[in-house]
Amino acid sequence: MSQNIDKQEKWDLILKAGSSEKNYWKDLWRFRELFYILSWRDIKVRYKQTVLGAAWSIIRPLLTTIVFTVVFNKIAKLQNPGNAPYALMVFAGMLPWQFFSNALSESSNSLIGNANLITKVYFPRMIIPASSVITSMVDFAISFLILVAMCCWYQYLPSWHIIFLPLFILIAFFCAFGVGLYLTAVNVKYRDFRYIIPFIIQFGLYITPVGFSSSVVGERWKFLYSLNPMVGVIDGFRWCILGDSMSLSSLLISLTTTLLFLILGLFYFRKMEKTFADNI
Amino acid sequence: MIKHEGKENYTALRDVLANNAKKIFSFSGWKPKKFTQEEFWALKDINFDIEAGDRVGIIGRNGAGKSTLLKILSRITEPSQGSIKIKGRIASLLEVGTGFHPELSGRENIFLNGAILGMSRNEIKKHFDAIVDFAEVERFLDTPVKRYSSGMYVRLAFAVAAHLEPEILIVDEVLAVGDAQFQKKCLGKMEDVSKNEGRTVLFVSHNMGVVAQLCTSAVLLNKGTIDFIGSVSAVVDKYLRNQSFTNEFQHNKEAIGIKPNFIKSIKIKNEAGENVSSFSFDQHIVIEFSCQISNYTPDLLIGIGMQDKTNSRVFTVVKEVEYFFNPEISEISGTLKLPNSLFAPNVYSFVFALWTKMGQIHDVAENVCVISIHDNGTSLAAFEGADYGSVIINPVWKSC
User: Fold this and answer.
1) Would the pLDDT of A123 be above 80?
2) A5 in B contact zone (CB under 8 Å)
3) A118 touches chain B (CB under 8 A)
4) For A280, nearest residue in chain B (alpha carbons)
5) pLDDT-derived band of residue A134, with 50, 70 and 90 as boundaries?
6) Which pLDDT tens digit goes with each residue over A189-238?
7) N or C terminus of chain B with fewer C-beta within 10 Å?
8) Is B103–A49 a contact, with Cβ atoms under 8 angstroms apart?
9) What is the pLDDT of residues A19-37, one digit of tens each?
10) Which of A15, A44, A190 sits opposite B104 (nearest CB)?
11) Do A2 and B80 make contact, defined as CB atoms within 8 angstroms?
């Protein structure tokens, strides 16, 4: 039995009911390798025992672009107000949207999908949805290569705005991460969200300027429309790649929403984290 | 909190909303479904200290709270009240093969599992060959783990975990899987890790023998509270005594009619014929038994074995049924008197079997009739509680 060595001995860790872990951020650093290892696992597993393998990551976005171009451009005859080819406009909008929707749907189910880890091992749980978003980033990177190929095909040189592209990528990342964190945490307790999320994504596709350009949106809807965080991101993408005009106010509103979601997501996730192992 | 209404183990938003919506209509006399809640403390008033280098066994019945305790120490669940102070890195092994993905190969899973358990990539690379060697799966390293046999799977999983290098190791009944050779290997490795490298080990097991071999002290949990903390043999003793075994065995009525030959009853008595379960060292123990023999063959045997609390056999005696058999009645009964002043003061149980010389077993009763033998003045009385063997003998000493 120890005799009051407590005062002299320095404890590494003290676990108490309801304590906010100061060690959490240190732990995130200690387990940093897990971020990439869990993504690596998801990517490796995805194409095991498939014939086409990694080719699927190129085929999927390509097919969607082709369908969109055919339907909206050739059939519905929607035109791009800017001077870039329609297919490129669609793709430039589709790229971040695919990233966001994939990241969101994967991260929302990530905690439940990894239930076996959560009940048996300790590591900061935030790593799980983060690694889902990172996995989607990898897909994004591959699709980006397709974009580059398309630019070459159309012999289109992007404007100098392209140097801002990483900024918008970052905003898209935080947007997906923030919303994903919140949804995945709430999904552990209320499984209804498993059904709500695909609906949100489908609905989102119509209110986000993927198939159309932001300029078609009327003035009186502009504010409401800009509350959608992806509006700012996609407009930004189009501005960077195609030089399309972009409204700054719209961007600022979207940015605020993104920040809000991020803070909300982080806060809620940390609050619920302690109960994950019990609820899952 | 445990809820007693509803079979789902998670809350659905629709139920919460529906219940809240229904409350609005309660004025019409309709009452919404009430969830009766009951507070359930999986663990309460747990206080103990563990020093560096201790090897502590945690034992208790199923549902005593052992796994919950380990989960709290591993930071998987948060304590509702109280605090835990830890110095040193903890690695916990609550399940073998945590995080193993069936589609990935053995090699990939080693890196995955190692990272999940807290090893850095460099550490894994350093120990990679040792891990593969321990698991003996070198030939199958690049096949997906879903093709492994269950034995290979478990060996690989344990191999990774065995090479963790934490200051504190928490192990939860993971040695219960695998064949005997593997268990021996795992135990050897754990002993190696704890005795030679001085790590602190918390070990949960139902196997008293393993706990006795590995641990320096033990904690007995009972229904969420600490029953007893002390030396391993004292704690195991208390654990076995708590299990209310009787010193009597009666045959299970359901099986009558299925087997032609079976054990009917076994009773332990003292020389005076009284039913007792507690003996002093110099008392004779009398075992009274009766068996039903409907299908007599001359090669039928009765065997009685006595086991200590780690289920190691102390002695076995065998007698032909012929000795007891009377062709006119289909039942045999007899007694057996054990020598006195021989068995070391301890807790023992018996195993009883009815079988033939060729190995065909007709009936067997294991771990029945628990008795305890008390010291009443042996030469080793001062050492009571320690493990000094199962017999006390009087050899002839001579000084040369």
Assistant:
1) yes
2) no
3) yes
4) B10
5) very high
6) 888 888 888 998 898 888 888 777 777 777 888 888 888 888 888 888 88
7) C
8) yes
9) 656 678 888 888 888 999 9
10) A44
11) no
Domains delineated in chain B:
2-38 (no CATH), 55-239 (3.40.50.300), 248-383 (2.70.50.60)
Name every chain B residue with its beta carbon within 8 A of the beta carbon of A10. Answer: 87
Q: How far apart are CA A189 and CA A184, in angstroms?
A: 9
CB spacing of A17 vs B95 below 8 angstroms:
no
Residue range(s) defining the domain that contains residue A245: 34-40+53-279
How much is the pLDDT for A3?
43
Residue A6: inside a domain: no
Mean pLDDT of the region B283-300:
89
Residues 28-47 of A with CB under 8 A from B: 31, 33-34, 37, 41, 44-45
The pLDDT value given to residue A130: 93
Contact yes or no for A15 and B49 at CB 8 A? no
In a domain, A8, yes or no: no
Chain B residues whose C-beta is within 8 A of a chain A C-beta are 10-14, 16, 49, 51, 71-72, 74-90, 92, 94-95, 98-99, 101, 103-104, 108, 111-112, 115-118, 120-121, 144
Q: How many CB atoms lie within 10 A of CB B91?
A: 20
Domain membership flag for residue A218: yes
pLDDT in tens, B15-44: 555 555 555 554 444 444 555 677 888 888
- What's the pLDDT band for B6 if we cut at 50, 70, 90? very low
Residue A29 lies in a domain: no
Give me B65's structure tokens: 């709270």
Nearest residue of A to residue B1, measured between CA atoms: A278
Q: Which two structure tokens, joined as six digits, stand for B193?
A: 């890790």
Our count of domains for chain A comes to: 1
Closest CA to A40 of B255, B254, B109, B62: B109
Q: Do B83 and A122 touch (CB under 8 A)?
A: no
> What pLDDT band is residue B256 in, cutting at 50, 70 and 90?
low
Average pLDDT over residues B137-161: 88
Q: Would the CB atoms of B79 and A15 count as touching at under 8 Å?
A: yes
Q: How far apart are alpha carbons B223 and B152 in whole angstroms?
A: 36
Percent of chain A, pLDDT > 90? Answer: 14
pLDDT, residue B8, reads 39
